[in-house]
Design brief:
Elements: H1 8-14, H2 17-51, H3 58-65, H4 76-90, H5 92-126, H6 131-179
Length: 186
């Protein structure tokens, strides 16, 4: 009796071409998602250290946010616009994380359906409903599902955590803007 390996690589190598393509897309999506998560957390840490450090005086704070002539201080509205621009740019990768979290399970499901069809083809070709006829197709199907979930779950968690972290940073930045400008400047 042949031994069956359930390692991700063995399941990939044993899959048919369509399921291999599905798995490859899901691995690429997962790698891209992890990159986006790491890059966003590093960017958030850098922005916090540059813009929210204690003791940063109003002029230095304004200079970090917006380019204004030295003859006048930045208005509250200019600071808010600059802060919003920085936040929008920093949150750019969140959209990709949401897409990965949303579509990876469906791409995995497509691989699952294809694997089940392969299992039925195995039954038809062998004219047998034994385990040997259906196991390869079922293994493909389940592996595609696992790959889809492995891409989607971290992307979903990253999206949620980063969304909350950026919202907190935005609130802290708004508080800092308000503390560095007077109501008459708004």
């Amino acid at each position: 009796m042949d031994t069956i390996s359930f390692s991700p690589l063995a399941l990939f190598l044993g899959a048919g071409p369509v399921v291999k393509l599905v798995m490859t897309l899901l691995v690429l999506a997962s790698v891209w998602g992890w990159y986006l998560i790491a890059a966003a957390f590093m960017l958030l840490r850098r922005m916090r250290s540059q813009l929210l450090q204690p003791g940063l005086d109003a002029a230095s704070f304004a200079a970090r946010l917006v380019e204004v002539p030295h003859s006048r201080p930045a208005s509250r509205a200019e600071l808010r616009r600059a802060g919003n621009r920085i936040l929008r740019a920093a949150q750019g990768g969140l959209t990709d994380l949401a897409v990965i979290a949303s579509i990876a399970p469906f791409i995995g499901l497509f691989g699952t359906v294809w694997g089940i069809m392969t299992a039925f083809t195995g039954i038809a070709e062998a004219q047998d409903v034994g385990l040997a006829a259906v196991a390869p197709g079922i293994a493909e199907a389940l592996a595609a599902t696992a790959y889809g979930l492995a891409a989607a779950i971290p992307a979903s968690i990253g999206y949620s955590r980063l969304g909350a972290a950026f919202a907190a940073f935005g609130a802290d930045l708004a508080d800092r803007i308000d503390s560095h400008s007077s109501p008459a400047e708004g």
